[in-house]
Write a structure and sequence with these properties.
It contains 22 helices and 8 strands. The longest helix is centred in the C-terminal third of the chain and has 22 residues. Helices cover 55% and strands 9% of the residues. Strands 3-2-4-1-5-6-7-8 form an 8-stranded mixed β-sheet, with helices on both faces. β6, α10 and β7 form a beta-alpha-beta unit. It binds guanosine-5'-diphosphate and magnesium ion (MG). Magnesium ion binds next to α5.
């Protein structure tokens, strides 16, 4: 079971308890402990957290206006958020020079391209320097990644000294708002690595030195963060592969302990799989309450690429055209599966929709091309005779057409939920989401039946 699901179970048992006594609290506390320890959070931190919750739960005087249940839930959320990084510093809006450091395989090279793309989307002119002279294929890897997103890359394949690569690149790079240097790692933290980073540092003079860590290091993140910080000074952290590791919670908690602010999370292998980190949002997302803000940000970026407007996504003017665009856009964001997970809707989205293939999507397009504009804008008019006509028109069967309509209706139901969300609470900048409200919204399973005429 993943961290989020376990945490959700623990919190749900508090939320649903009819009797709110010591036994209930102990039970939930144990569940929290199991969840956090399974995610490789240091045992001492876990015990501190649950002891504190247990103490608060039996306190005689409660804050004004809160029931005991509400108080315990709030303390639990607040403490979990704190454990994962609380209100630590957020990634800078306009960094000028970022040096990425970290061990082999931590995700530096991938993150260099992801970060470049992230800031390019925000209107900055970004260039990357390939200063990994240690591994022969390092420059090619970065070339491939950068060419995908048209990110200018500088380097010198013949130069073996990393600091010299930086020196030469800087001479060629004029007029950039942001420069990102990808450095070499080693399999362990060693003096040679420190020496090399120090030399690069002297030449590059970065305002930002970010340590890249794979989530799979779990609580060892603390050791790495401290070692790198003591040697070269680190002011931010990127945790990669949060998508594939069960130890993400441990890595985050460890960074929080060593006061290393986590700026970004790597959430997949694609260049767009990068999220600004915010402990509250992260918690609400993994607990399945949805991270609409993250989705809106992504949707906005994709719109900037000319594909889907977040207004369309939110306003709920939902028809087949929007449906098709959404499917395409969600594919682009990663997979529908991932998007619905971000929204906390995964459990409610039928499996066949989560696994929608390119091929199927192309089939839908063919069918839609046989529809009239009116049919696409008001799919409610699609009765049997129209369905047969459409099928004939595009060489598909009646059941193919019905499948499209079924998927459309399922998606329509899903997006209707977005519409109901108070948009103001979403737009509150940096305000995070009202978790209580989201729980109310997504927690209930409303089964809707659609009938095709
Ligand atoms: N799933 C996933 N894979 C990642 C992520 N970031 C990096 N990777 C993969 O991790 C491996 C090592 O990454 P790389 O950037 O080469 O690490 P480096 O040695 O520190 O430069 C590569 O296979 C990447 O595709 C991430 O956020 N999610
Ligand atoms: Mg690399």
């Amino acid at each position: 079971m993943a961290l989020g699901e376990r945490l959700r179970n623990a919190v749900e048992s508090l939320r649903k308890a009819t009797v709110f006594d010591k036994g209930t609290i102990k039970e939930a506390s144990k569940e929290l402990q199991r969840a956090l320890i399974a995610s490789d959070v240091e045992v001492k931190l876990v015990l501190d957290l649950t002891n504190h919750i247990e103490e608060e739960a039996v306190k005689e005087k409660l804050p004004k206006g809160l029931s005991r249940r509400e108080h315990v839930l709030k303390v639990t959320y607040d403490n979990l958020v704190e454990l994962l990084g609380g209100t630590a510093k957020k990634a800078p809006e306009k960094p000028k020079k970022i040096l990425l450091v970290g061990l082999f395989g931590s995700g530096k090279t991938t993150s260099a391209a992801k970060i470049a793309k992230h800031y390019m989307k925000r209107g900055m002119k970004v260039g990357v320097i390939a200063a990994d002279t240690y591994r022969p294929a390092a420059v090619e890897q970065l070339e491939q990644l950068c060419s995908k997103a048209k990110i200018p890359l500088f380097g010198d394949k013949k130069e073996k000294n990393a600091a010299k690569v930086v020196e030469k690149s800087l001479k060629k790079m004029k007029g950039f708002d942001l420069l990102i240097t990808d450095s070499a790692g080693r399999s362990g933290f060693d003096p040679e690595l420190v020496k090399e980073i120090k030399e690069i540092n002297k030449e590059f003079k970065p305002d930002e030195k970010w340590l890249v860590l794979g989530a799979d290091v779990g609580q060892l993140a603390k050791k790495q963060a401290e070692a790198f910080h003591n040697a070269v000074g680190v002011n931010g952290v990127i945790i990669t592969r949060i998508d594939g590791s069960a130890k993400g919670g441990g890595a985050l908690a460890a960074c929080a302990v060593s006061k290393a602010p986590v700026y970004f999370l790597g959430t997949g292998e694609k260049l767009d799989d990068l999220q600004r980190f915010d402990a509250q949002r992260y918690l609400s997302r993994i607990m399945g309450y949805g991270d609409l803000q993250a989705l809106l940000e992504k949707a906005k970026e994709i719109h900037e690429d000319g594909e889907l407007s977040p207004e369309e996504l939110m306003k709920g003017k939902f028809n087949l055209d929007v449906f098709y665009k959404q499917l395409k856009a969600t594919k682009k964001m990663g997979s529908l599966s991932k998007v619905s997970e971000m929204l906390g809707l995964k459990m409610q989205v039928p499996k066949e929709m989560l696994d929608m293939t390119e091929e199927k999507l192309d089939g839908f397009k063919v069918i839609m091309d046989s529809m009239t504009v009116q049919e696409k804008q008001n799919p409610e008019v699609l009765n049997r005779s129209r369905i047969i006509r459409i099928g004939k028109g595009c060489g598909k069967t009646e059941s193919d057409v019905r499948e499209l309509i079924k998927s459309y209706k399922q998606m329509a139901g899903m997006f209707k939920r977005f519409k109901n969300i108070d948009e103001k609470s979403l737009q509150k900048k940096g305000g995070g989401l009202d978790m209580q409200k989201l729980v109310g919204m997504f927690g209930k399973k409303k089964k809707k039946k659609f009938k095709i005429r």
